[in-house]
Amino acid sequence: MKIFLNELNEEMQNSLALEVSRIIKKSPLFTPTMPIWGTPFKTKITNAGDWGWKSDKSGYGYIKKNPRNGKEWPEIPEIFIKVWSKFSGSKKLPNCSLINVYENNEARLGLHQDKDENDYSIPVVSISLGNKAIFHYGKEKKNLKEIILTSGSVIVMGGYSRLFFHSIPKILKDNSNIFRSFPISNIPKESRVSITMRRFISRK
Ligand SMILES: O=C(O)CCC(=O)C(=O)O
Fold this sequence. Notes:
204 residues; Jelly Rolls; binds 2-oxoglutaric acid; 32% strand
């Protein structure tokens, strides 16, 4: 696992935040639910790219259209691809960019592996924006490591770490400026947002 803390400067973070806001405008956020039981997640999501990740009663997976508006996902913004190209070490490009919005410090994401993509030779790159988050990660469910992800941090899960377990157990109240000082109306000011880029290979 490669972790680059505070890597992206404020100008870059603002540009990324603006693109996230545009994506949400075109493709509204929705609350995923757990497979089978239908328990709602504590995050809201949307996507950009040819494919979008979802979770609902029928399971986890990738779909072509936003279930809220029935439209295809917007394109992945060029600036996201720029970050991918700088950090991923992969010549292949992502075809999904999942946007997770943690609207307040009650939001969190349970321990999981990213394994719906079918080709684990291609890394996952995740960007953090907004309030800080505690991040747990490791090869096994026990003995997880802990770090605090700050706004502008980038994580790469590739090679030996591609299938690492990871979670966001807590969002901290640190009042990051990114969503506070910016004229973005569709992302709550105390949010943390992650942009997670992956390449999904369809088996159909
Ligand atoms: O919010 C994060 O930093 C992690 C996101 C994540 O683990 C995921 O979308 O699979």
